[in-house]
Amino acid sequence: MKVCTRVCIVLASANNGGLEKHVRELSEQLIVMGNHVAVIAPMAFLNTLDTRVEGHALAFENSRYNPLLLWQLLLKIKATNCDIVHAQANKATAMVGLLKPFLKCPIIATLHNIKSNVRPFFRFNAIICVSKQLAQSFKNKNVRVIYNGIHSPTYNSINLKTQFDLPHHLPVICAVGRLVEAKGFDVLLKAVNGLPLSLLIVGDGPLHTSLQQQITQLSPNTFCKLLGYRDDINDLMHAADTVVIASRREGFSYVFNEAALCGTKILSTDVPVANEILPAELIVPIDDVNALATKLAFLLAHPSTWQNLMLPVQAFAQQHLQVTVMAEKTFALYTELLNTQTINSARSATFKSTNFKHARTYSDY
Predict the structure, then answer these.
(1) Which of 184, 207, 251, 331 could share a disulfide with 246, CB 3.0–4.6 Å?
(2) Burial of residue 2, with CB atoms counted within 10 A of its CB: 0-12 exposed, 13-18 middle, 19 or more buried
(3) Distance between the two ends of the chain, CA-based, in angstroms?
(4) Radius of gyration, alpha carbons of the chain
(5) pTM value?
(6) If we measure between CA atoms, which residue out of 187, 238, 239 comes closest to residue 214?
(7) What would the mean pLDDT of 210-230 be, rounded to a whole number?
């Protein structure tokens, strides 16, 4: 019979991005597997969690080196009576690492994005990286690559051309993400300019105005609409002819994951995790407008070739990019660390017992 493991997850942010999505889905799936999960995070994030999660609110506004904040975090961790502590992303990792001398249980950390300084992760018993590229920073360390998983997407069949008043004779491309520099939407707009297609950009962010200005300067035979935030992204991606990822930087592209599980054709820049799963024919260099335009035009002209290239990718997604697989691999690492701790504790007890017997023997003389 599986023994319930008490897991404490520490998250120092309360945004609405991929990191928070990961923690939310991981914690809920671990509970489904029969574990007890406590999450220490800002209240704004705790309010988004399943009610079965034991929430411990902590404001993380102060510096990660603030003594009072570190003391508060230590008390919160001890209050969970956990078997293992799992720190998510950099700030939580730095803080939990500093508390390691005061914790008796194993500690594990997950790296979600490319960082120049990963030294805080070296204090941990094990490290999870969400892509192979991130794992390259930890040679000779106990590091595992576990891709982020999501629930199998559900979607409704819709007609994008009718719904958004697009030309019926042109293919429809979908691009999804926050409107920020890292996502490369400016590059994508330059690449599609002049190509006979329609582009739907889903998401909101600080670059909305500048991207809208760029759209007004597109060639007359290229159509583009900024759709803002949407809660029907799966419907849009499934109905599109393709999803294009033009990112300059990614730790792990959830858009890739969602598109692959939706069965949509994908073209991506050379960013994780797309560059670890897509064939080379579907990868273009970062920030290369001409390469992106040329490849996109070729693939749109050869849809059957594109679809054949996607078949193994979609099969891989079904087998490895599901939330159940992510949680099972994470729990397997928990179990490995806890078993190692048990063995080491037994050896330590045996060593102490042997030394005590020897001490008594010597004292008899």
Answers:
(1) 184
(2) exposed
(3) 51
(4) 24
(5) 0.85
(6) 187
(7) 96
